[in-house]
Specification:
The protein has 8 helices and 9 strands. It is globular, with a radius of gyration of 18 Å. The strands form 2 sheets. The chain has a 6-stranded mixed β-sheet with strand order 5-6-7-3-8-9, with helices on both faces. Strands 2-1-4 form a 3-stranded antiparallel β-sheet, with helices on one face. Strand 1 and strand 2 form a beta hairpin. It is of the alpha/beta class. It has a domain of 148 residues: P-loop containing nucleotide triphosphate hydrolases (Rossmann fold, 3-Layer(aba) Sandwich), CATH 3.40.50.300. Helix 3 crosses helix 4.
Amino acid sequence: MSLVEITGLDVRLDGRPVLDSVDFSISRGEIVTLVGPNGSGKTTLMRAVIGAVTPAAGQIRRKPGLRLGYVPQKLHIDPTLPLTVGRFLSLPVRFSRFETRAALEQAGAEALTDRQMSELSGGQFQRVLLARALLSKPELLILDEATQGLDQPGSAAFYRQIETIRDETGCAVLMVSHELHVVMAASDRVVCLNGHVCCHGTPEHVSSAPEYRALFGTGTGGALALYRHDHDHSHEHGPDCAHDSHETAAE
């Protein structure tokens, strides 16, 4: 059963078309990555999945009571504010120390409970945000450019942690990222957007599709080897590509 199923989605922002006739679904246990150039509608589709945008046309069906976890690309916290990681994870909803420690362990940040938020590195901060999202025990974990500002090894380690979480909990993961060769290789399925779905399938299929290469070139062809992922249950998703004839819309 799909956690989210979207059919024929049209979205307009300030009267401008952003998404046109988009079909999208995500099922339990999948890791799906949205890729596309700036202004292609990635964030808008993610907001549609969450329920934060009103479509001009189409249907959005979500599993009743669907639990979501969200990891933003950044979050500003006043560096002069004395706030430990454990306290941060208990705001605004109070969680027990056991629950916060368990979430931090799941996020690969178990040693950070008593650290000040202002002292964390970029990678540590993002893992704390991941732990915060995991406290809700999400069925669908959503990451919006969650590794922005991290170096490539840090990004790869973060996405490996995401895979581990998926394997342990069975949750689905929806990601948006510009780090194509890292995040695509951590995915079971890739959806390439440019105002509409111009290509989707396994990372290997999408990266070799003409529509993808027209948008991104061929420079990422060998880069998938940087991060090896065994697509053990995703080979049944073949490429499904449509000619890219739409102008890029504002995201």
